[in-house]
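Q: What would this chain look like folded?
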Amino acid sequence: MIQQSLADQEWEAPVWGNYRTNMEFLQRVGLLDKPSTILEVGCGKGVLLNALHAAGHTVMGIDIDAAPISVCRSQFPELKVKVASGDSIPYPAASFDVVVSFDVFEHIPDSDCHLREVARVLKPGGCYLLQTPNKWTNIPFELLRNWRKYHLGPISAYRELLTDHCALHSYWQLKRRLARNGFHATVFDMPVVNEYFIAKMHTYLGALASPMLAVLNPDRFPRPMRTNFYVKADLTH
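A: My prediction, written as structure tokens:
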């Protein structure tokens, strides 16, 4: 049954999201060049957090879901992780040089509260490194995904989208929101079409995936229409 198989595929994956591109982004912004104190919001099973730990960083992680945190503690017992949400971060002010999150921002209902919390726990001069999908490209994909994964009709699929991806932003909406909360945003053009992305497209589009990617390669889209925004948000006050 496709609903169960797709759900199992996502849960059983060692890391959720485009891990290779996420790591390339962290490399490009210079995070891997010197040891830092890092918080990952939405650390999941801890694969990326463990990679940062292995690179010499002091790392901590939070995730709102207890199940992946349990897996993280089992696989990487040396990591310090907690069950907590991104709008109530359980650490003192000025605790971290860097906060990172991938495929998390769009799930937190109160974006301003989340950004205030990130700003609070960052040290002066710190930065927030995040990736979040583009509102205008993510909506049609999530409707397709909810149809394929849960067999939902258009209206039900859209309601599920609004529940799960409740804080999608366009390019300009994201930049304005970051600015209002004391961040200067630099958006990076990161290539996302790799083995993971192609496999995901084939999962949900089947035989249509290859011809569609040949015509509509998201790596060639203008920046405001990229499928994912990779952002370095520097704390300005």
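The mean pLDDT is 86.
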